[in-house]
Amino acid sequence: MKKALFFVLMVAVAGFAFANGQGEEGTDAMTSPTQSVIGGPADVQPAAGPDGGWIIIFEGDVTVDSEVTVSGEVYEEPGAEAPRRKLALYTQDADRNIIDRFTLTVPRLVIEHVNTRIQGGIVKGDVYVDAEGFQMRDATIDGNLYFASQALQDAAEIDENSTVTGEIAVQSM
Known about the structure:
alpha/beta; 8-stranded parallel sheet; 2 domains; 16 strands
């Protein structure tokens, strides 16, 4: 009887581990921290890279002297339908009302990650989009917004609370 109970318990544990993605090949692309918090300029590129969190949280204004590229294939959580990233340039209260807005000053921000959203603050510099699903929500680009193709520009979602101070155009990277 003890052997049978032990066997059932082991099968249950193995089934649970498999259902949660353990033991599956190819899941490495979906493993990353949930969030990346920006404490200073040196944190920005690692957070925006393939090992960063799906949400990049700014806690103040940050100036980066070199190009920053949002890249990789990062998911909000294991098993999510599609990869996505969010540059959260704000803080919010418990009701999700924006309290403070921050500025990321960068010579060039390159978006190579699908479904990337800039939200709640300001990117001061030019933004180049070379991935599907680009979004701006309640944000400002104090510079130009360039897309690698007309299709990417046409598919971008820029809400009525967002502003681009420069030109919005198709331009090769």
